[in-house]
Amino acid sequence: MWFEAAAESAPIRGDADMLKQAILNLVLNGIEAMKNGGNLWLRVSREANSVVLNVSDNGPGIPADARDKVFQLYFTTKQRGSGIGLAMTYRAVQLHNGTINFSTELGRGTAFQIEFPALVRYA
Predict the structure, then answer these.
(1) Are 57 and 33 in contact (CB under 8 A)?
(2) How far, in Å, are 1, 3, 123 from residue 102 at the CA level?
(3) 3-state SS of the chain?
(4) Are 87 and 72 in contact (CB under 8 A)?
(5) With the C-alpha atoms ordered 86, 91, 95, 101, is the resulting torsion angle positive or negative?
(6) Are the C-beta atoms of residues 113 and 101 closer than 8 Å to each other?
(7) CA-based nearest residue to 120, from 50, 16, 33
(8) Which of 68, 73, 72, 66 is nearest to 33 (CA)?
(9) Using CA atoms, how far apart are residues 7 and 9, in angstroms rounded to an integer?
């Protein structure tokens, strides 16, 4: 696993437990997708008035017929999955006024990008 943090502070306002669970869901999905091992990257960056988190893996990618369903409650491609993780992640991001998107390529992996409003501090 690789982690890269922003050079400057990147604070956001939010529920720490809810956000931790949302990010954990992305990390676990990435790890579980790479059945034969692989690399997982987490990157936090500050872009203008936003904080961006990227979670990427080099797993098999998401099949075309599942891409429009990944955030739906109870949708899963796993034999033992509940289909709750990504739906809860999507909702947690929404509750924090953020956006979540992903890109995927079969045989090369998947990258999720979450963008939150940055916390503005006044001097």
Answers:
(1) yes
(2) 19, 18, 36
(3) CEEECCCCCCCCCCCHHHHHHHHHHHHHHHHHHCCCCCCEEEEEEEECCEEEEEEEECCCCCCHHHCCCCCCCCCCCCCCCCCCHHHHHHHHHHHCCCEEEEEEECCCEEEEEEEEECCCCCC
(4) yes
(5) positive
(6) yes
(7) 50
(8) 66
(9) 7
Name the pTM for this structure.
0.89
Token pair in block for residue 81: 């999955």
Q: What is the pLDDT along the chain (123 residues), one digit of tens a residue?
A: 888 887 778 889 999 999 999 999 999 999 999 988 999 999 999 988 899 999 999 999 999 999 999 998 887 777 777 778 999 999 999 999 999 999 999 999 999 999 999 987 655
Q: What's the CA angle centered on 75, arms 71 and 79, to 5 degrees?
A: 130
Structure tokens at 46: 């500050």
Q: What is the CA radius of gyration of the chain?
A: 15
**Overall size of the chain counted in residues:** 123
